[in-house]
Amino acid sequence: MKSASLTIFPYYFNGSDYYPVIPLVFLTGGKRIRSQALVDSGATISIFNKEVADSLGVKIEKGDKTILGGVGGRIIGYVHKLHIRVAGKEFICPIVFSSEYLVSFNLLGRMEFFKRFRIIFEEKKNFLKLE
């Protein structure tokens, strides 16, 4: 039996608190664009802001329109299926881009991302494990 590889990410410290923010790479159009996002078990789908879409050359409105709701209210976004690499694994992940998304962290939600890993949040030690 093949053992799964383990990648450990220390939490990001923003000056007052720690967050499970991890690096990722978008693989699009022959380019590799580095980014980062908060791993969010409460988010159904991943969501990134307009600036990331612009850096990738993604035309936001060309995706499938969706309305997302949460603690902050409702926003309109557009779903795009993009090739990403996280912790050495490459896969297609649905990502919502929205010019209305103004929160400080991009989010990696459950859809497709959580299927790829065993995810362990080590809150006491401020790190995240992906296996």
UniProtKB/TrEMBL annotation:
One GO term under biological process is: proteolysis
Record-linked InterPro entries: Aspartic_peptidase_AS (IPR001969), Peptidase_A2_cat (IPR001995), Peptidase_aspartic_dom_sf (IPR021109)
GO MF, any single term: aspartic-type endopeptidase activity
The protein depicted here goes by the name Peptidase A2 domain-containing protein
| Domain of life the protein comes from | Bacteria
Residue ranges of the Peptidase A2 domain? 35-112
Query: Which keywords belong to this entry?
Result: Hydrolase
